[in-house]
Design goal:
- This protein is an alpha/beta fold and 465 residues long.
- The chain has a single domain, classed as Aldolase class I (TIM Barrel), CATH 3.20.20.
- Helices cover 41% and strands 14% of the residues.
- It is built from 13 helices and 14 strands.
- The strands form four sheets. The protein has an eight-stranded parallel β-barrel, surrounded by four helices. It has a two-stranded antiparallel ribbon with strand order 3-4. The chain has a two-stranded antiparallel ribbon with strand order 6-7.
- The structure holds phosphoenolpyruvate and cobalt (II) ion.
- The site of phosphoenolpyruvate has 10 residues, from loops.
Length: 465
């Protein structure tokens, strides 16, 4: 399709109903669904339009290379994990990674959790078969239950309400924690860094954490206050906007603002399986004013990407569109450069973000889904290099991770192997980096960005003299 041929069409919160709906959920009881959606439509929003606009302007900075986006959390949140320690640990690991990345990039970091609403999952297969019995696939806590019985797998509209409530509880607790300042999070000397001694790059990791300890100490002495007291962090939420009935009823028009906002989250994204140009998801997303993400994998062609950009961001609004590429470490070198070229040639503004998780999923011989730390790192390092070489900016990273000590991905400083996967594999869907693997990855990126940041400041100093 020629991007310039796309006509502006009228949009409404329901115009997506006339389009093909990928990953559609069919409820046996339509009246019950209607009642639930009506209740949801009356409930207050979870986020505000000014927070959403604030995030959009921060993402615009990231697209210009002035900030860096860190987005991460569970592949799929589950209702039972709506507990204080699980939420606090998720937040803490993201904040710690954020501090490491601030140090490495010398930029302000935008922290966006994949949580408080990440409850619906796209599935490649409609059904799951066990011992010759086939049932509808598990599609996330928002839609059905993971137990392998026919009752569990029937979509239940009450779960939409439970999801909204869990998202609200999670967000409420996160807001409280962020306001409390989290003193220990700012101090690497209080982090659990035992794994560092097992890492091949232990000295480099110690150098980085030591430098952060010194920098924080210096700033606190200078200010006469703790870092938590004088640098309140913004924190944002995101989830895949997959279940459009749920997204639609939380889409509101705000007094004195012209636009429609999805107020269930700050930053919804379109998944790789639902980004068809003429599909319902793209139709819904084109009309909301939130900053949005789109996952793009190996199957996207440059012309298709340009059409997506035209439909989703016709006014070329800065911060509006983040392209989250997820090719896998073996394919990124072929897939990414033509897309960077096409976007550069079009003159459009996007924020490029690398998801090094979803193209690197493998199954062990026993059929367990896992990812290798080295593949994740390899995709990330190539992403930085490929953008650098084209004069483009990799402005963010997107991880599936948790603050707990799970064993779902192999590798990392402790060298987790397939045998370790039996020990603490808790994810319902995709394997997540654990606390140590996530922090180690941040240290690796910081090391990588630190080299370019000091290179840039050296160049700047030279230019200035
Ligand atoms: C996800 O982010 O969990 C996911 C399903 O990703 P993708 O749409 O990139 O496959
Ligand atoms: Co996933």
């Amino acid at each position: 399709m020629n991007p310039t041929s796309v006509e502006p069409r009228p949009w409404s919160c329901t115009s997506w109903h006339d389009k093909p709906i990928a990953q559609r959920v069919t409820y046996p009881d339509c009246e019950a669904l209607g009642r639930v959606l009506a209740s949801l439509a009356r409930l207050p929003p979870l986020v505000t339009s000014w927070e959403v606009e604030n995030l959009k302007s921060q993402l615009a900075d990231a697209a210009r290379g002035e900030r860096f986006l860190l987005q991460g959390g569970d592949c799929s949140e589950c209702f039972e994990d709506c507990q204080s320690s699980a939420i606090a640990n998720k937040l803490k690991i993201l904040l710690k990674m954020g501090i490491v990345l601030v140090y490495g990039s010398r930029k302000r970091v935008i922290r966006v959790g994949r949580f408080a609403g990440q409850y619906a999952k796209p599935r490649s297969a409609e059904t799951e078969t066990r011992d010759g019995v086939s049932l509808p696939s598990y599609r996330g806590n928002l839609i059905n239950r993971k137990g392998f019985t026919p009752e569990d797998r029937i979509p239940n509209p009450e779960l939409l309400l439970r999801g909204y409530e869990r998202a609200a509880l999670t967000l409420n607790f996160i807001r409280g924690l962020v306001d409390g300042g989290f003193a220990d999070v700012h101090h690497p000397e209080l982090w659990d860094l035992d794994f560092v001694k097992y890492a091949a790059l232990a000295d480099e990791y110690r150098r980085i954490t030591g430098a952060i300890v010194d920098a924080v100490g210096f700033m606190e002495t200078l200010a006469g206050r703790t870092l938590g007291e004088f640098s309140r962090v913004d924190f944002f939420t995101s989830h895949e906007g997959l279940h459009l009935d749920y997204e639609q009823v939380q889409t509101r028009q705000v007094p004195r603002r012209l636009h429609w906002y999805n107020l269930s989250t700050h930053f919804p994204w379109i998944g790789e399986r639902t980004r068809a140009l003429d599909g319902a998801h793209v139709e819904y997303f084109r009309g909301i004013a939130n900053p949005i993400g789109v996952k793009i994998g190996p199957s996207i062609a440059p012309a298709e990407l340009l059409s997506l950009i035209e439909i989703l961001n016709p006014a070329d609004e800065p911060g509006r569109l983040t392209l989250i590429h997820r090719f896998g470490c073996k394919r990124i070198a072929d897939c990414l450069p033509p897309l960077i070229d096409a976007v550069a040639k079009s003159g459009r503004t996007v924020l490029w973000c690398c998801d090094p998780m979803h193209g690197n999923t493998i199954r062990t011989n026993r059929g367990v889904k896992t990812r290798n730390f080295d593949d994740i790192l390899a995709e990330l390092e190539q992403a930085f290099d490929l953008h650098d070489r084209k004069g483009s900016i990799l402005g963010g990273v997107h991880f599936e991770m948790t603050g707990e000590n799970v064993t779902e991905c192999v590798g990392g400083a402790r060298g987790l192997t397939e045998a370790d996967l039996d020990r603490a594999y808790l994810s319902d869907v995709d394997p997540r980096l654990n606390y140590e693997q996530a922090l180690e990855l941040a240290l690796r990126i910081a090391g990588r960005m630190g080299q370019s940041a000091s290179g840039t400041s050296r160049t700047r100093r030279k230019d200035a003299s």
